[in-house]
């Protein structure tokens, strides 16, 4: 039991050593402190042209909702594949209903011209 505890402590010690070494080496490689504008995380240090809370055009929202619908489909399909082996036809019918409802939403989005980018 003690050897397993010692192994865990050794791994933690090695991880901390690697982290401290990496931080020290990064300070050694770039000893000059950058000015505030160079620390801006976007655009390579340039000031951003718009504010982070600026609004997006309304045409992005329907496309986002369609993307979320496809993501939800994939999120439910992976566990369903495992349950399908155990449940059989019942799981197949349930997934068919789910895909039908999702398909109706996609057809509606197509008729509303969500997929046509302007």
What is the element layout, followed by pairings?
Layout: H1 2-29, H2 60-87, H3 89-111
Structural commentary:
α2 (60-87) runs antiparallel to α3. This protein folds into 2 domains: 2-45; 60-111. The chain is flat, with a radius of gyration of 26 Å. By secondary structure, the chain is an all-alpha fold. It has helices at 2-29, 60-87, 89-111. The N and C termini lie far apart (66 Å). The longest helix is centred in the N-terminal third of the chain and has 28 residues, at 2-29. The protein contains 3 helices and no strands.
> Helicity level, as a percent range?
55-70%
Main beta-sheet strand count, sense and barrel state: none
Number of E strands = 0
So what's the overall shape? flat
| Uncertain parts | none
The helix/strand class is: mainly alpha
Question: In whole angstroms, how far apart are the ends?
Answer: 66 Å
Order of helices and strands: HHH
Summarize this structure as a short list of keywords or feature phrases.
flat, single chain, mainly alpha
Provide a brief overview of the structure.
This protein has 118 residues and is an all-alpha fold.
């Amino acid at each position: 039991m003690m050897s397993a505890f010692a192994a865990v402590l050794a791994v933690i010690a090695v991880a901390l050593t690697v982290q401290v070494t990496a931080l020290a080496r990064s300070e050694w490689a770039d000893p000059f402190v950058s000015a505030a504008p160079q620390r801006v995380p976007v655009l390579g240090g340039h000031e951003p042209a718009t504010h982070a809370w600026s609004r997006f055009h309304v045409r992005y929202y329907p496309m986002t909702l369609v993307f979320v619908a496809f993501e939800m489909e994939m999120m439910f399909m992976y566990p369903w594949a495992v349950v399908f082996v155990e449940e059989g036809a019942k799981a197949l019918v349930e997934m068919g209903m789910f895909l039908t409802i999702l398909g109706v939403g996609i057809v509606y989005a197509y008729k509303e011209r969500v997929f046509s980018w302007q």
